[in-house]
């Protein structure tokens, strides 16, 4: 039997076979009458599941939640906002979307402090710095306000006390990505790894994962890390300049949404896929998906941004509603490679879940 991280046995998922005779035998060993136990056992079953099935819906509560973001106007987070909106509409809550437009940590810290002073009912924050959020998060918790991280998280060694993290396992996604493209890039060749904000906790772990995959493969390729910059035009210019000065490169890879689109645009402009260059990255910007469908980019990775808004709102609601019994839990929103073979559903219609329409699903 496998064991959990805390050393306790972990079930393999198989149902536990316990029949009536085993239950009565256990009762006899405990000195309980078989008939009495059987009656009690049946009563428990009769009053448990049916009562739960007949329970009313969760009550609507006017809780106010504040979502603190590092790039508040970035289109990547459009479905995240829809996720928050849908959860709040379902549960009767309200929300504020705030933070910084350009990943200015001091602005994000100020937003947390303002929310704490306003005594809001819960805070969700994208933790993009390893230590800067420690005190504001601790202060909010001390004021009785639950705090969860979403999209990016503090390192385990940082001392940050956030209650849970909802988002992609960023390092693992980078490791998985690297293992994938290493199968397509010739051994001994050279690749570019782009990151638009080096050190930022929503991107750096992905870069670290890609580099770990290269080392795991015995340093099968050489690589450059390119600081692509935080602005889309800057990213496009720097990635194109990199290619023009490294025309023997066999892989162009990015760690965020806008630099992935920049890679795709360079791949298209110079028809690099036809020359054996592999390209890939992250997220579901519409132009990225179109260029995948046209065969210019090999893949992008879907981390389900809608869930990164929906789940934190639900977890904060349940924590408040239960008086703290429903403690927020870490939730991995996943990793899905989107390729030319699988991109069809993303392009076949507009979806609120992917941020391409405001319309609710029917």
What does this structure look like?
It is a single chain. The N terminus is likely disordered. Helix 10 links the parallel strand 9 and strand 10. The chain starts with 19 loop residues before the first helix and ends in a 15-residue tail after the last helix. The longest helix has 20 residues. The protein has three domains: 28 residues; 130 residues, Rossmann fold, CATH 3.40.50; 133 residues, Response regulator (Rossmann fold, 3-Layer(aba) Sandwich), CATH 3.40.50.2300. The radius of gyration is 25 Å and the shape is globular. The strands form two sheets. It has a six-stranded parallel sheet with strand order 2-1-3-4-5-11, with helices on both faces. A six-stranded mixed sheet has the order 7-6-8-9-10-12, with helices on both faces. Helix 3 runs parallel beside helix 11 and helix 4 packs parallel to helix 5. It is α/β, with parallel strands linked by helices.
Tell me the layout of helices and strands.
Layout: H1 20-29, H2 34-53, E1 64-69, H3 78-91, E2 94-99, H4 105-117, E3 122-125, H5 134-142, E4 147-150, E5 165-167, H6 170-181, E6 190-195, H7 204-216, E7 222-227, H8 232-245, E8 251-254, H9 257-269, E9 278-282, H10 286-293, E10 299-302, H11 307-321, E11 331-332, E12 336-338, H12 344-347
Parallel strand pairs: 1-2, 1-3, 3-4, 4-5, 5-11, 6-7, 6-8, 8-9, 9-10
Antiparallel strand pairs: 10-12
Helix pairs in contact: 3-11, 4-5, 6-7, 8-9, 9-10
């Amino acid at each position: 039997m496998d064991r959990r991280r805390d050393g306790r046995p972990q079930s393999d998922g198989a149902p536990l076979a316990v029949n009536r005779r085993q239950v009565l035998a256990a009762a006899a060993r405990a000195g309980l009458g078989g008939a009495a136990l059987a009656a009690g056992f049946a009563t428990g079953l009769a009053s448990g599941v049916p009562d739960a099935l007949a329970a009313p819906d969760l009550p609507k509560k006017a809780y106010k939640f504040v979502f603190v973001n590092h790039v508040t106007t970035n289109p990547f987070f459009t479905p995240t906002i829809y996720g928050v909106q849908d959860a709040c509409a379902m549960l009767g809550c309200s929300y504020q979307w705030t933070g910084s437009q350009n990943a200015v940590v001091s602005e994000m810290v100020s937003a947390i402090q303002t929310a704490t002073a306003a005594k809001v009912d819960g805070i969700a924050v994208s933790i993009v710095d390893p230590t800067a959020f420690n005190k504001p998060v601790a202060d909010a918790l001390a004021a009785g306000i639950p705090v969860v991280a979403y999209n990016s998280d503090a390192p385990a060694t940082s001392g940050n006390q956030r209650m849970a993290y909802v988002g992609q396992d960023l390092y693992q996604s980078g490791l998985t990505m690297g293992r994938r493209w290493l199968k397509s890039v010739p051994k001994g060749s050279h690749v570019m790894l782009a990151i638009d904000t080096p050190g930022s906790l929503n991107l750096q772990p992905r870069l670290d994962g890609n580099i770990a995959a290269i080392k795991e493969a015995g340093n099968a390729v050489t690589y450059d890390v390119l600081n692509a910059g935080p602005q889309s035009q800057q990213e496009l210019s720097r990635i194109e300049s990199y290619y023009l000065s490294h025309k023997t490169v066999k892989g162009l890879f990015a760690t965020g949404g806008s630099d992935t689109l920049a890679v795709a645009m360079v791949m298209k402009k110079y028809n690099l896929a036809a020359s054996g260059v592999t390209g890939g990255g992250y997220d579901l910007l519409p132009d990225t998906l179109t260029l995948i469908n046209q065969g210019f980019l090999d893949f992008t990775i879907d981390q389900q941004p809608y869930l990164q808004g929906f789940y934190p709102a639900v977890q904060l609601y349940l924590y408040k509603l239960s008086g703290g019994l429903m403690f927020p839990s870490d939730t991995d929103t996943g990793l899905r490679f989107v390729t030319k073979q699988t991109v069809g559903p993303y392009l076949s219609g507009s979806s609120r879940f992917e941020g391409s329409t405001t319309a609710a699903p029917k």
